[in-house]
């Protein structure tokens, strides 16, 4: 069994730091929530690298919100529910589509410079959206612009203290209440940080897979530590693979935004044939899971390793203006977006599930909140609609702060110890273990899954479990332990769900089965695995 704590400690022997609100992570969720909370609270933001290391930094497409006169919350709601394949929470989606515009106003007030056209906010369209409702910045650098603006606010805010290069190892809970966390400083010293509210904003799990659009820091730390603490984890079988990621010798797996297809790019196989008409009536603008599987099918059918993304029929001026970051990045590797077909293949991108929350972002553990990709609010269902992730972070960040304002100070915490007397470090270097785990997940729990592959993957993961008996002391060891927790949960849930829905595809159960499987799978360390019904959509 996965242990409650990753490290031995005695709280009474640890130095203590007290604050009002602990924010773990520094993407859009962490930055935005910290700024809002700092208006009335002292905030401690803890990030294992720096403010600029997060998935938000790499978000290109934009942020979805109802701004245009010809758009409506009802239309945004409908698009989100369709993409979510029957597993969205209608209440959570209603919150998103109605409160998203207010969140955008907050971002603008905090200094985010979205692109304008004729003095109005510029809007574009992306896959599975029925309207142009995606705000963007510097063409295709929306995430970087939001991080720039919010980081500037955080750095000059006297109510926010930032701890860079600090690793949060585990949450401290008692009687289903979160009191804070055990944090390791850069010098290896452990401290107990306590606050009346703890907010997980630690991002996703892209590093479960060898090929991902996510940075190295996306190791599922928040989901793993919440699971060990006894929180409910929901919908982790649904991992979205972005269809169009640069696949070129010597180049990293660089995201080619969905907005490129939104502006007219088409997909061609290795023989130059446009193929999406064989898979979906929306062609290149079909939901991401459909486009990704179509690409994999074409790759297998033509015995290739990639397909082409072609926007050469659009004006060079528009392409360079709209996608300057993508254009320049490809140019660095000898590929001209305006004249060349760009080789692409799917890569791990986003987890729809995570730590289950209510509509105020609070988890099943009181005073523990989750915001952004680490959370399972119910907005995304089985497949996230493009550009809804940044919206979700600001909408639920606002709600979390409102909920924190109602909290009373914490009562005294009883003494807690974790003493398993671990003595020996891991036998095998964790960098080798991490690569092995990524290969297991890619082979058995990626685009196409089956009972045989998932069972084999689960057995291989269980062989790594002795790591939890070792004395862990370095960041990469904690990260691998967290990846192992998340890989195990994802594989267990994927094996249980005997149907294909959204981003989860079972070759042995290729059809969607609403009669048996229109429900959530919830994993809890103490209570085991349970199923949760879905409200009518």
UniProtKB/TrEMBL annotation:
Signal peptide interval: none
Compartments in which it is found: Cytoplasm
Domain FAD-dependent oxidoreductase 2 FAD-binding: 20-390
Top-level enzyme category: oxidoreductase
Cofactor: FAD
MF terms (GO), sorted A to Z: L-aspartate oxidase activity
Entry keyword set: FAD, Flavoprotein, Oxidoreductase, Pyridine nucleotide biosynthesis
Involved pathway(s): Cofactor biosynthesis; NAD(+) biosynthesis; iminoaspartate from L-aspartate (oxidase route): step 1/1
Family: Belongs to the FAD-dependent oxidoreductase 2 family. NadB subfamily.
Name listed for the protein in its UniProt record: L-aspartate oxidase
Lineage, highest ranks first: Bacteria, Bacillati, Bacillota, Bacilli, Bacillales
